[in-house]
């Protein structure tokens, strides 16, 4: 009987240790759940990176048009007129509201 109790205690102890390790493999700091969460974060960060790269490319294109060696005078004139809301002495400037219909 003593041998049988020892064998049962050993089996229960090893089973408990196996369950403990399995639980930490799933829920631990570096377990499966943490891995899934990190993969979700990585996906979100990659999407944010792509959006920022697109925005940077657009800003680089705008900046390239303002460099002295490739200055686009039409673009510069358009931006200056829009910023100052001004036109030439022989021009009429119409400001259109983009948010809604014109007043009646």
Class computed from helices, strands and strand pairing: mainly alpha
Annotation field: number of helices: 3
Gap from first CA to last CA = 101 Å
Give the overall shape, derived from the CA principal axes: rod-shaped
**pLDDT < 50 stretches:** none
Largest sheet: none
The tally of strands reads 0
Chain-averaged pLDDT: 84
Compute the CA-based radius of gyration.
34 Å
Explain this structure to me?
By secondary structure, the chain is mainly alpha-helical. It folds into two domains: 1-30; 39-86. The chain has helices at residues 2-27, 32-64, 73-84. The longest helix is centred in the middle third of the chain and has 33 residues, at 32-64. The protein is rod-shaped, with a radius of gyration of 34 Å. The termini are far apart.
Gist of the model:
This protein has helices at residues 2-27, 32-64, 73-84. It is mainly α.
Indicate the topology.
Elements: H1 2-27, H2 32-64, H3 73-84
Which structural traits does this protein have?
single chain; 104 residues; mainly alpha; 2 domains; 3 helices
């Amino acid at each position: 009987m003593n041998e049988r109790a020892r064998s049962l205690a050993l089996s229960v102890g090893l089973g408990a240790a196996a369950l403990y390790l399995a639980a930490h493999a799933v829920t631990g700091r570096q377990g499966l759940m943490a891995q899934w969460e990190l993969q979700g974060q990585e996906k979100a960060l990659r999407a944010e990176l792509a959006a920022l790269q697109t925005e940077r490319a657009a800003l680089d294109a705008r900046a390239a048009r303002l460099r002295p060696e490739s200055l686009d005078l039409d673009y510069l004139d358009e931006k200056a007129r829009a910023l100052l809301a001004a036109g030439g002495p022989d021009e009429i400037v119409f400001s259109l509201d983009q948010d809604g219909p014109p007043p009646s």
